[in-house]
Amino acid sequence: MKYSKATNYALHTMLFLVAHTPDKPMGVQQLAERQNVSPTYLSKILTKLVKAGLIESASGANGGYRLRRKGDEISFLDIIHAIEGTASLFDCTLDHPSECLIQQEMVKAEGQMEDYLRNKMMSELAEKMLACQ
Amino acid sequence: MKYSKATNYALHTMLFLVAHTPDKPMGVQQLAERQNVSPTYLSKILTKLVKAGLIESASGANGGYRLRRKGDEISFLDIIHAIEGTASLFDCTLDHPSECLIQQEMVKAEGQMEDYLRNKMMSELAEKMLACQ
DNA sequence: GAAATTACAGACTTTATTTATCTATAATAG
DNA sequence: CTATTATAGATAAATAAAGTCTGTAATTTC
């Protein structure tokens, strides 16, 4: 079980956008160069963030991607859910007479992780990053 | 990102062993039937639990698998680590000047989940299960 | 309006991981 | 010795992740 690379790209892109809060949109070309990933692949990932309402896109010359919320309103969990989906990490496929107790505990455990990620905002990380430069 | 089915099989097998604490070893045949999984595949999984020191195996007639610790000394995390490994769920592969801040937060988040799983013992679940029968 | 620029969508390929299966070997009880 | 049971290794099949390619739509610039 691993977080996908796509989630890593998404988090880094969002952190960059929050840290630099550009007034005009950033093209996928530049965003991709910074991470050594192909523009077409990154654009797929960013489209998911658009659909999740975290960023907005503009076509045409001088187009690109721009934040749709402030950095203190974007959590790690928002981004992770946009990429990985919101389904539980654990699925008991066995047929039980009643609800699976193991499943219940796994969901609670996952909830602990999600609580942390829900309360960790991009702005906090951006400030920390900028302070260390 | 999903927990593997193997982890599910491992957790269910351990819960069964803890709940029934048989004096003589249980064969993989019977354990596999209960979960509708092939014995050869389950035996692969159980071998991992043996190597992790959670259960012990005996070859030959009347052989099988038996607990090596009490149920209150076996945590969810013990079992999950035995199957999934102990590596972090998140690997930042980008080359950073200094340590990746995103990685650091992800590790902390994961730690929250692990804390819960480390403190959740098989015995607790076994009791709950037996009470509901 | 034409040309350049940029995002979006879908099909496709490649690679990696998970889920198994098969077969042979080793250990043990009776 | 024979039946039973676990272990190891090779292999196959299925699924998921990572990435590419191509064409289309939207927008700006001229």
The helix count of chain A comes to 6
Overall number of strands of chain A: 2
Helical content band of chain A: 55-70%
General shape of chain A: elongated
The largest pleated sheet of chain A is described as: 2 strands, antiparallel
Mean pLDDT of chain A: 95
Instruction: Return Rg of chain A in Å.
Output: 17 Å
CATH class of chain A: Mainly Alpha
SSE arrangement of chain A, N to C: HHHEEHHH
Topology:
The structure is a homodimer of 133-residue chains.
Chain A: H1 5-20, H2 28-35, H3 39-51, E1 55-58, E2 64-67, H4 76-84, H5 101-119, H6 122-131
Antiparallel strand pairs in A: 1-2
Chain A binds a DNA duplex (30 and 30 nucleotides) through helix 3.
Which descriptors would you attach to this protein?
homodimer, 133 residues, mainly alpha, Arc Repressor Mutant, subunit A, two-stranded antiparallel sheet, 6 helices, elongated, DNA-binding
Question: In a few lines, what is going on in this structure?
Answer:
The structure is a homodimer of 133-residue chains. Chain A has six helices and two strands.
Descriptive overview:
Chains A, B: It comes from Paenibacillus silagei. Chains A, B: This is Rrf2 family protein. Chains A, B: Pfam families: Rrf2. Chains A, B: InterPro entries: ArsR-like_HTH, TR_Rrf2-type_CS, Tscrpt_reg_Rrf2, WH-like_DNA-bd_sf, WH_DNA-bd_sf. Chains A, B: Keywords: DNA-binding. The structure is a homodimer of 133-residue chains. Chain A has a two-stranded antiparallel sheet. Chain A is mostly helical and 133 residues long. The mean pLDDT of chain A is 95. Chain A contains six helices and two strands; from the N terminus they run H-H-H-E-E-H-H-H. In chain A, 56% of the residues lie in helices and 6% in strands. In chain A, helix 1 runs antiparallel to helix 4 and helix 2 packs across helix 3. The longest helix of chain A is centred in the last third of the chain and has 19 residues. Chain A has a single domain, classed as Winged helix-like DNA-binding domain superfamily/Winged helix DNA-binding domain (Arc Repressor Mutant, subunit A). In chain A, a hairpin with a 5-residue loop joins strand 1 and strand 2. The relative contact order of chain A is 0.16. Chains A and B meet through helix 1, helix 5 and helix 6 of A and helix 1, helix 5 and helix 6 of B. Chain A binds a DNA duplex (30 and 30 nucleotides) through helix 3.
